[in-house]
Design a protein that fits this description.
The complex is a heterodimer of chains A (about 240) and B (about 230). Chain A is α/β, with parallel strands linked by helices and about 240 residues long. In chain A, the strands form two sheets. Chain A has a six-stranded mixed sheet, sandwiched between helices. In chain A, strands 2-1-4 form a three-stranded antiparallel sheet, with helices on one face. In chain A, helix 2 crosses helix 3. The longest helix of chain A has 16 residues. Chain A starts with 12 loop residues before the first strand and ends with a helix. Chain B contains eleven helices and no strands. The longest helix of chain B has about 35 residues. Classes of the chains: A alpha/beta (about 240), B mainly alpha (about 230). At the A-B interface, strand 5 and helix 2 of A face helix 6 and helix 7 of B.
């Protein structure tokens, strides 16, 4: 668990990963990862399929542990993880949000009030009594964001949240991610969409073969990527 | 067939009494089996304990428990010199409930395990990221899979009410006391009183069809609603 910041002018580190490797069945999914995520950042993790982006997010969330090295992160109650395919319960939209709040120990009537506020913020209040799984793909992803938002996490980890969404739905989700970030939540996002990364990232972490090959401010990364893997990746995007 | 139909249409009191006892015994056994089998199935679906594999093997194998063997074991347990003899359950509906519970608990637990495991897969990472305890996961998944589990319970009830061997041995098929539909059918057929046997047979098949039809309709409707 991370401690309070030592100096008022230094950014608070929410995640500190030091020389961490994740090895499953003898295969290294992540190798020698050094990464610090500070409060207020908007970090986009890029990389080809199988580069280890999702594994890195799960490591940040501590739902997997490093096989080697060390990990310091926030408690699970201070962070939220959302997935490419939203994990929704067979309940109404409102009850999906109330569920996560009740897990966090928020009692009624605050629970329902907070859930309604989150749904309103995510423009889902009209669907509050609909079954969650009957929503469109974009609405389902907004619901998973509403669930995260309702808990007011300090760190939001989003694993390709706009993959498979139509452009309008993608823009809606992006707008919400920006809104969450503007309220002070630190954002770590994986995506294959370079244009989206340009729109959302302050900082880019580029993974190749389970290793971080670039970790730089977004403006610098997109102008002059250092690694061949990143150059090839960005060229592929521009084809 | 005509005699059987007239018994059914006339609402014969013996027939109604036997049917009511059958329903009461099997429904009680299903409730008890659900209270044991659902948490056990959920635990087996979620645990990473080393006991999981042997328990799953035992549960799956127990789905095919021969009723007469269960009847024999329960008979020995409940007989006067058996460890549960002082309860005085032999040749009573309570003993029959016990036998049916033993028969259907593995069925409910094994089917619940598979159902809950399937429901857990798409939610596993999210549950982990929420930091749910084992009990929170189990309760959430039991609710999440409620429609499929309702069908599992009705399958258990169907198995219980259609059972004859164990309840015959443990209940003794005593008229007015432990005589249920299946044991009456067996007895009346051996006596040559086919109208009552046939009427009960028709009623039993109808009950099983209604229960299963209801289960399927409920599941389909709820799944459409929650799709």
């Amino acid at each position: 668990m991370l401690e309070a910041k030592a100096h008022p002018n230094l950014p608070v580190a929410l995640v500190k990963i030091h020389r961490a490797s994740v090895i499953v069945d003898g295969k290294a999914l992540l190798s020698e990862i050094d990464l610090t995520i500070s409060e207020g950042e908007s970090v986009v993790v890029l990389g080809a399929n199988g580069a280890g982006k999702s594994t890195l997010l799960k490591l940040c969330n501590a739902i997997i542990s490093p096989s080697l090295g060390s990990l310091q992160t926030l408690s699970l109650h201070e962070q939220s993880l959302i997935f490419q395919r939203p994990a929704l319960l067979r309940r109404t939209v409102l009850d999906n949000v109330r569920y996560v709040l009740s897990i966090r120990g928020i009692a009624e009537p605050a629970c329902t009030e907070q859930a309604h506020r989150a749904l309103t913020a995510c423009n889902l209040s009209a669907t509050a009594n609909q079954q969650a799984r009957s929503l469109s793909g974009g609405e389902q992803q907004r619901l998973s964001l509403a669930r995260a938002w309702a808990c007011k996490p300090r760190l939001l980890l989003a694993d390709e949240p706009t993959a498979n969404l139509a452009p309008t739905a993608m823009r809606d989700v992006e707008a919400l991610l920006k809104a969450v970030q503007s309220e002070g939540t630190t954002l770590v996002l994986t995506t294959h969409n370079v244009a989206q990364a340009r729109r959302l990232a302050h900082r880019i972490v580029f993974l190749d073969g389970g290793m971080i090959v670039e970790d730089r401010p977004a403006a610098e990364f997109f102008v002059s990527p250092h690694s061949a893997a990143a150059r090839i990746y960005l060229e592929g995007e521009s084809l | 067939m005509a005699a059987a139909s007239s018994l059914l249409l006339a609402g014969d009191s013996t027939l109604l009494e036997i049917t009511a006892l059958s329903l009461r015994v099997s429904a009680t056994a299903t409730v008890i089996a659900a209270l044991i089998g659902l948490p056990l199935g959920a635990w087996a679906a979620l645990t990473s304990s080393r006991l999981r594999t042997p328990i799953v093997v035992v549960l799956n194998a127990s789905m095919g428990l021969p009723p007469v063997v269960v009847g024999l074991i329960v008979y020995l347990l409940l007989s006067r010199s058996g460890p549960m003899g002082p309860l005085g359950w032999l040749f009573t509906p309570a003993g029959m409930v016990m036998a049916q519970t033993i028969l259907i608990t593995p069925i409910i637990a094994a089917l619940a395990r598979q159902t809950i495991e399937d429901a857990h897969v798409p939610l596993r990472d999210w549950f982990t990221s929420l930091g749910l305890s084992a009990w929170q996961r189990i309760l959430t998944l039991l609710f999440e899979a409620r429609f499929s589990l309702a069908v599992v319970l009705l399958a258990g009830f169907g198995r219980a009410i259609a059972e004859v061997g164990a309840v015959m041995m443990v209940g003794g098929n005593i008229a007015g006391s432990t005589r249920v539909m299946t044991t009456t059918i067996a007895l009346e057929t051996s006596k040559g009183d086919l109208p009552l046997a046939l009427a009960l047979g028709l009623l039993l098949v109808t009950l099983v069809l209604i229960v299963n039809g209801f289960a399927q309709t409920l599941k389909a409707r709820m799944e459409r609603r929650h799709a």
